[in-house]
Design brief:
Two copies of one chain form a homodimer. An eight-stranded mixed beta sheet of chain A has the order 3-6-2-1-9-11-12-10, with helices on both faces. Chain A has a four-stranded mixed beta sheet with strand order 5-4-7-8. In chain A, a hairpin with a 2-residue loop joins strand 19 and strand 20. The first copy, chain A, is of the alpha/beta class. The termini of chain A are far apart. Chain A is globular. Chains A and B meet through helix 1, helix 2 and helix 3 of A and helix 1, helix 2 and helix 3 of B.
Chain lengths: 405, 405
């Protein structure tokens, strides 16, 4: 009886393909698995710091490079990786093919630098799989209907890998330089514990709250199409964390994890004349500039004005200041300030849904330890604070000890 | 009355786009000409040493990288250049579009690393020209019918530029780091003179004989389609050399120029059993390995054996040695040796066709000055010698002085 081969999508990030030696190392692992009969689609990012070098080149030309040309430029990074990895695989005596995003059939909209995958034409990938080729695909990139090369933005290679797994109906393994998902960042808090399993929802909260293991978009796609995802170390020697649908076998802790975001810019606007139109127009303008807004909190109106805070990434500061200046011209009464000396601290746990008292326990902990918090937001399974950067370590220690993370 | 815009293809080599500053410099010149109403298609090579770096990366993976992956890897070099140049043009307020070889419709055969252009679908270029965009095209690369990225080999960007000019029925200007075609290499012989005009035939001889200004394939295409070509300095401040059909206005010198090829490997085979089949089979094997053979000389048979010499490029040494070993196994009698301590010296002049005595004048010159020559070949308008590297400077001086080059 002929055994049907299993198909898996593997994804390797920039560190994993950071040097010829590392590329040869992962080629060895890929061919080992191929020799065991697995069909493999391998998605790779650009080598280590190569994207930074390309960005620098562009900025040496102009401070405001056109996004379309920027995509064309940056996409060369993954093209180099796929060529080298495919060479390394062939050098080990295996059949392999290297495909750019366009060649792999990844069709996106034309929103350069932040494109979204609209459709994947898998015919070329399937043709090569049927010929027993290891298929190496450039992450992070696609092609628009106009035939222009696009990039998927932040975490784009994860998005490529999970989207391919979704359409090929197979699991995906994300190899990275951490060996799994931890209760909190082990580089910051040495006693952090590795999770064996985590639900999509918790993973999404952890990721969107700043755990830099996987980008939220990729997790969302994984969740939507129920793609089994494993996050594991790129040295292949330890078991990683499985991300899957929540089931009864999962341990139900009140708090699963805690994340910290350093790259955090808090915007506070006071005395906005109270009409909901004003606030929605502000966010519409921000969205039009493709600035990603993270935490939003608005307090109830008082004296016919409302106060509003939100956080975003520091690199959007210039664009935001321009928007706020225009907003102030329209509404003379408002007062705004930006603060980038803050970090965002988030605590996540599926148990929060059913157990009350987590928020009050956190508030007490922070106040007992003299940790000032500024903005506060909550979701069903998380609570987030902005705190002063200097309080970061104290907050982590305090919360991790108390919730046994 | 509306004036019809003239269309010109400009080509910039690796040195011309070697740094962001140089790219900005040529963007300035391109937009200056565009502002004067010219329609422009600009073909660029990879930045300076970037191709060498990519080759090094590949060789860090494997000593024998697959050619298909190599093409995918190397083609990123020009992709970076077109993205940066298009950014620089847009930064000066002009409309521009950057196209890879594939996007520009350059369709080739599947002979990776030495592909030939089979067809150019100019629809996308023409669409952008009609919208008054400056069209920036990646040289050196194309796409095969299978959808794989190919490269055109040695001098490929010149081939791209001249082929585009041929199909677009317009002139091409090749910008380089020399300011025109000289009677001999001015870096080697300071008193060399710049030519104002040269015929395709002479240019072809000079190029195929080692003048590294333009690759022969590009000149051949230019000749075939009568593309007016100008070779000029990439600083845009001096007049270059025009390559065109021979006409009566051209000065008829016996000898137009002299070239030297350093990268020269001479193969000599003695005592080949005399049947023309033996020699033709040898060259068939060499051609199958895509080794380019340059000078060939065979002496008339003697004692039923023939002696044969030919030159090729040093990088093909390993492949050649393998072929020769096999050839020796088949024909035990033969004796062969390879010599790479030689340079090839060639003297070119359309006047040679009609004026006799040039060869004998050269032979005398060399012997009078004690310059040993090994292989000798002639064409209608050229004569070539291999001489010892140590005699190089003496030979140049002697011939240039005598023929007033």
């Amino acid at each position: 009886m002929q055994q049907k081969n299993t198909l898996t999508v593997l994804k390797f990030g920039g560190t994993s393909v950071g040097s010829p030696e590392r590329i040869k190392r992962i080629a060895l692992e890929i061919t080992r698995r191929s020799a065991l009969g697995e069909d493999l689609v391998v998605v790779v990012s650009a080598m280590g710091k190569s994207t930074d070098l390309l960005v620098q080149l562009a900025h040496d030309i102009t401070p405001t490079p056109c996004k379309k040309e920027m995509d064309l430029l940056l996409s060369t990074g993954e093209q180099v990786s796929i060529a080298l990895l495919s060479m390394a695989i062939k050098d080990l005596g295996f059949s392999s093919v290297a495909l750019t995003g366009a060649q792999a059939g990844i069709k996106t909209d034309a929103l350069h630098s932040k494109a979204r995958i609209e459709e994947i034409d898998t015919s070329r990938i399937l043709k090569h799989l049927s010929k027993k080729h290891i298929v190496v695909v450039a992450g992070f990139q696609g092609i628009s209907a106009e035939g222009d090369i696009t990039t998927l933005g932040r975490g784009g290679s994860d998005t490529t890998a999970v989207s391919l797994a979704a359409i090929l109906k197979c699991p995906v393994e994300i190899f990275t330089d951490v060996d799994g998902v931890y209760t909190t960042d082990p580089r910051v808090y040495a006693k952090a514990k590795k999770l064996k399993e985590i639900s999509y929802d918790e993973m999404l909260e952890l990721a969107s709250l700043g755990a830099s293991i996987m980008e939220t978009r990729a997790i969302e796609i994984g969740h939507k199409y129920s793609v089994p995802m494993t996050i594991a170390l790129n040295t292949f020697d330890v078991e990683g964390t499985i991300v899957k649908e929540l089931d009864d076998t999962m341990e139900k802790k009140v708090v699963t994890g805690m994340t910290l975001t350093d790259n955090c810019l808090m915007v506070s606007i006071a005395m906005i004349p109270y009409t909901s139109k004003n606030v929605s127009q502000l966010f519409a303008t921000i969205a039009k500039e493709h600035i990603i807004v993270d935490m939003i909190s608005q307090t109830a109106p008082y004296n016919n004005t409302v106060n509003l805070s939100f956080t975003t990434y520091k690199e959007d500061r210039l664009a935001l200041e321009e928007i706020l200046r225009a907003f102030k011209q329209e509404h003379n009464s408002i007062d705004y300030y930006l603060d980038d000396q803050l970090v965002k601290l988030s605590v996540v746990g599926i148990g929060m849904v059913s157990q009350s008292g987590v928020a009050s326990r956190l508030f007490s902990l922070l106040s007992d330890h003299d940790i000032k918090f500024y903005q506060v937001t909550t979701s069903e399974i998380s609570i987030s604070y902005t705190i002063h950067s200097s309080d970061k370590m104290k907050a982590i220690q305090t919360i991790a000890d108390d919730f046994e993370l």
